[in-house]
Amino acid sequence: MGLPQLKIHSTLESAIEAIQTYITQNKLGKGDPLPPENTLSAELGISRNIVREAMQHFRTLGIIVSKQRIGPTIARLMPKDPYENYMPFMAAEADRLLPSLSEARYALEVGSAVLIVLKATVEDLQILDNICQTMKTEMDYRQMIRLDGEFHKSLLNATHNPIICGMVPLLVNFFNEKFRPQTEHKDFFGPFPQRIIDEHQAIVKALQDRNPEGMRLNLESHLKDYLAFSQKASGGD
Known about the structure:
Layout (H helix, E strand, L loop, with lengths): L11 H14 L11 H8 L3 H13 L3 E4 L3 E4 L12 H6 L1 H18 L1 H7 L2 H16 L3 H17 L4 H5 L1 H12 L14 H15 L3 H11 L1 H10 L4
Antiparallel strand pairs: 1-2
């Protein structure tokens, strides 16, 4: 199936839409090649500069990569980080968004408990256990925050669900890197407590035992501060 012909006054957005339509209608998947830019330009009836900009849109999302001697190729169909372009705006509204991000993180991680138990591999378990062991000996606060983020990132990645994994940059990486070290909400974050390390180990134990109910209960207990903080910030009891 060819590319849909564009009108002469087509915009960059139209070219992006046409390439997306080509990918979906031809059922392209990981590793499949796309036509070269000059072919796309001819079929769409637009300049190579516009085609190049449209292709860059998909490269930025991590959907297309360029391979030597092959040209543009599908790397994935889900964006690697769908929130990337929104990060500066979200960082500018930290105080307003922090409660909402706390709620979203609680809901996603607790809601993923059963899926994590079902899908986690031996390698996933090893990664989580290694993080726990490292946290036992780490003394630097910022390193502990980084390791905490790695633990929760690895936990969600253990779902092996591309939509859930796509939310990791927002709900874990962005949350920890942009908000947590700089926040003035010391009553929420405070010094890094030993109980967090213990709770991480309890989560890993439930996962090793393939215990979905135990996993869910441990995550609910571990993340309760996120929900309590959100309720307090919104004026709840």
